[in-house]
Amino acid sequence: MKKIVLILAFAFTYVIACGNCGCDSQSFSNNNEKKEKRQPPIEAISICENKEEGSSCEIITRRGENVAGTCQTTPDDKYFACVPKNHKRPQK
User: Do 82 and 47 contact (CB within 8 A), yes or no?
Assistant: First the structure.
């Protein structure tokens, strides 16, 4: 009997805590929308100005590393930027 009471108390506490931290379905959909609204860094966009699709480019990462890439249009056709060759597209 004590185990059942403890389990119910834990479950109740979890539900209350989750409600207070915004763990509802609306929060999860907002997170997905934020992922879709990402844009390439300004530097990546400016590097490819006046270049053609597929032109080689080089970008400096936040860590200070030089990374080779190509100038590409983003999948949503909003941006034309330098995309590193090892870049993996975000999963939907």
Answer: yes
pLDDT bucket at 28, cuts 50 / 70 / 90: very low
Q: What is the domain partition of the chain in residue ranges?
A: 1-38, 39-87
Of 51, 36, 65, 91, the C-alpha closest to 82 is 51
Evaluate the CA torsion angle 43, 45, 46, 47 in order and state its sign: positive
φ and ψ of 35, to 5 deg = -65, -40
Give the contacts of 61 (CB within 8 A, at least 6 positions apart): 67, 84
Query: Which residues fall within 8 angstroms of residue 45, CB to CB, at 6 or more apart?
Result: 79, 80, 81, 82
pTM higher than 0.85, yes or no? no
